[in-house]
Amino acid sequence: xxxxxxxxxxxxxxxxxxxxxxxxxxxxxxxxxxxxxxxxxxxxxxxxxxxxxxxxxxxxxxxxxxxxxxxxxxxxxxxxxxxxxxxxxxxxxxxxxxxxxxxxxxxxxxxxxxxxxxxxxxxxxxxxxxxxxxxxxxxxxxxxxxxxxxxxxxxxxxxxxxxxxxxxxxxxxxxxxxxxxxxxxxxxxxxxxxxxxxxxxxxxxxxxxxxxxxxxxxxxxxxxxxxxxxxxxxxxxxxxxxxxxxxxxxxxxxxxxxxxxxxxxxxxxxxxxxxxxxxxxxxxxxxxxxxxxxxxxxxxxx
Length: 302
Hints:
39% helix, six-stranded antiparallel β-sheet, alpha+beta
């Protein structure tokens, strides 16, 4: 890459820590007089190179990347740099602060340098929207703004509620509308899925964070006259199902494990167990402890 880039343009490979402490390798390219880099994730590109080994020349790939950087820098370079400068000013950045829920245990290394607010066995972390993409807020930026994690939480939650409202819909109706559920399959659709709902935000991005929106679960529990079994589909959404019995907890937990391992990228996984919203106490509880006790009791009986 350095051979194909002009003088004054830097290229560096960096390892980044993301959600669930997933490490990714990125190629960062920037003009030496600017603060913001254009980032390219390397894992997918490397896998493509392996898949077409002998057909793709690395020098050609580097040449294409250098040309793509020049085009992107020409179109957006000044805008991105100006956006970066604006983010340093808290008064201008304040309206762009959002949050997302991640797993606390699985993201323990990331949370060491990232302001966060614990929520059950999860944590709310904060990020900024910019033309350069999603920028995770680390402690150094928070300290520069001279604010606290609780300040960030209040600001981010208020922004999310106003800018990215709740989206709630029937999974069965959604599949039918998308043509993913054929007419002859509707009668075979499992009965419990008739009462399966998705809860996310209008962007359907980091939508599991709607669990933090004030009184959301309470409103839907009252509307449907039930306690909710909350299924962590991914960091982008959760699924809600009326809670019936403890026996279904084990079944749902097995389904969560299967989906996490087969259908989600590692940094998209939110949790490995369901949660329960109790309408009478207006609280969401983690069923992880209850599941452990259930398994221990089952093993003793066996």
